[in-house]
Amino acid sequence: MRLSRYFLPILKETPGEAQVVSHQLMLRAGMIRQTAAGIYAFLPLGLRVLAKIEGIVREEMDRAGAIEVLMPTIQSADLWRQSGRYEAYGPEMLRIKDRHDREMLFSPTAEELFTVIFQNGAKSYRDLPRNLYQIQWKFRDEVRPRFGLMRGREFLMKDAYSFDLDFAAAKHSYNRMFIAYMRTFARMGLDAIPMQADTGPIGGDLSHEFIVLAPTGESDVFYDEAWLAARDTSAVDADDADALEHSISGLNTDYAATDEKRDLAAEAAAGDRLKTSKGIEVGQVFYFGDKYTKAMGVTVQGSDGQPVTPLMGSYGIGVSRLLGAIIEARHDASGIVWPDAVAPFKVALINLRVDDAACLAACEGLYAELTANGVEVLYDDRDERGGPKFATADLIGLPWQLVVGPKGIANGVVELKRRATGEKTELPMADAVARLL
Ligand code: ATP
Ligand code: MG
Ligand code: MG
Ligand code: MG
After folding, report:
1. Burial environment of residue 277 by CB neighbours within 10 A (0 to 12, 13 to 18, 19 or more)
2. Which residues, other chains included, contact 165 with Cβ-Cβ below 8 Å and sequence gap of 6+?
3. Which top-rank group of organisms is this from (predicted)?
4. Can you give the pLDDT at residue 281?
5. Within 6 Å (CB) of ligand 1, which residues are found?
6. pLDDT tens digits for 382-406?
7. N or C end of the chain: which has fewer CB within 10 A?
8. What DSSP element (H or E) covers 85?
């Protein structure tokens, strides 16, 4: 992408409306714009990051055996009356009337709809276990939308719903999602700690929230400092139910809980290792058994011919909130420092002298070759001085900067800078592309 033809409305000043650094940087880097309280437009750079995050979430869901679907955002009130949640949900639900005065709503979550869609397609025990998921916009009329994408009213969520025949199988489904979440957040460069959590309006008795520690988080959390050491869950075999249960209960021996679920005895046992912090909830997993299937009269035929009520769990990830959470965790005084896996482009190609024929030719050649090799490159071909170009590249936080100037070109060299460390290396122009593959 040539920056001269891109849509990247950078702001020089920090906007007064933004209180937290991730919101400030997203506005300054031209990623998002607010269109109404808690409702945002995604500009090209923001959309690219959103798509990267979505991609990682999708890969890990697919790897865990979940199957992607797409449900409508607008649902009928009658559907929600079947579970009793239409009245119970309260003012966070955006209620809408169509031209025939029929009551509709913008989905804040989708247990009811997935339950009836599942019922419609599953008839017997052979149709279970299944886990269906979507990545779809949700609306919650939050009392205090704030902090940009972190607490929006319209936000992108991945929501998955599992259906099983008995508790052992349902626990295995829950554990699969648990480990998939550990992997998902680790791939994004986040240390998300699973914490015992309250179930809120979703209901049920078993739940974990995945929390990224950050002073700007809205949750109060309590944990054993053992959690601060990195956990590698990549080798766990999720298909082996016993091995999986074993590794997860291993993880969970180290205490971690949100303030609604504090366990004072466990805290006393943790002694000096007990820490408290603010945290950002990036995901939550719930097991709630037959709460919805029973209320909505869902059964399948069991292997003995008798009807069985499927047991369910649901599993949410705040896809758009993750943009904010990642920036909160990865930034410095000059701007965003994207982890490679979610960066909107891999490299900023910076031409220091667009009026110099040799620089221009070198940049055009590098741009063509990088693009041909599938490297995502944002080419700063604008007629600008070096200073603003470096400032833009630092602000938008691409992992690499490839800098081409007249002095270097005279000696056949270019400079490669790693955004995260600031480390600069000179290298022969001919080697530059290979270093970025
Ligand atoms: P919170 O405690 O922050 O209000 P929640 O517990 O109400 O979140 P869930 O019902 O668990 O949210 O939804 C699943 C995920 O969706 C959350 O873990 C969070 O990452 C994300 N999410 C929830 N509300 C919002 C919001 N208003 N804006 C952005 N993301 C959100
Ligand atoms: Mg909430
Ligand atoms: Mg919560
Ligand atoms: Mg939650």
Report:
1. middle
2. 125, 128, 129, 300, 302, 308, 310, 311
3. Bacteria
4. 98
5. 109, 140, 142, 151-152, 155, 157, 200, 281-284, 316, 318, 320-321
6. 999 999 999 999 999 999 999 999 9
7. C
8. helix 85-88
Which residues lie below 8 Å from residue 140, measured CB to CB, with a gap of 6+? 92, 93, 94, 108, 153, 155
Reply yes or no on whether the pLDDT at 199 is more than 90.
Answer: no
Can you state the percent helix, strand and coil of the chain, rounding each to 5?
40, 30, 30
Tell me what pLDDT residue 372 has: 98
pLDDT confidence of residue 239? 95
Full-model pTM: 0.97
Q: Strands, E, within 319-404: which ranges? A: 331-332, 335-336, 347-351, 377-380, 400-404
- Gyration radius of the chain's alpha carbons: 24
Q: Is the peptide bond before 129 cis (omega within 30 degrees of 0)?
A: yes
The ipTM, to two decimals, is: 0.99
- Among the residue ranges 184-198, 201-215, 313-327, the one predicted with the least confidence is 201-215
Cβ atoms of residues 175 and 68 within 8 Å: no
Structure-block tokens of residue 322: 């993750």
Rounded Cα distance between 192 and 234, Å, is 15
pLDDT of residue 245: 95
The ligand minimizing its distance to the Cα of 140 is: 1
Q: Which two tokens stand for residue 126?
A: 């052979």
Q: What distance in angstroms lies between residue 315's CA and the mean position of ligand 3's atoms?
A: 12
Please choose, from the candidates 390, 417, 412, 320, the residue with its C-alpha nearest in 3D space to the C-alpha of residue 46. 320
pLDDT digits (tens, 9 = 90+) for 16-75: 999 999 999 999 999 999 999 999 999 999 999 999 999 999 999 999 999 999 999 999
Tens of pLDDT along 333-381?
999 999 999 999 999 999 999 999 999 999 999 999 999 999 999 999 9
pLDDT tens string 70-83: 999 999 999 999 99
List all residues 6 or more positions away from 218 whose beta carbon is below 8 Å from its beta carbon. Answer: 147, 150, 151, 278, 280, 281
Question: By C-alpha distance, which of 202, 211, 219 is closest to 287?
Answer: 202
What is the CB neighbour count within 10 angstroms for residue 418? 13
Q: Which residues contact 365 (CB under 8 A, 6 or more apart)?
A: none
| Bridging pattern class, strands 413-418 and 347-351 | unpaired
Nearest CA to ligand 1 atom 27: 151
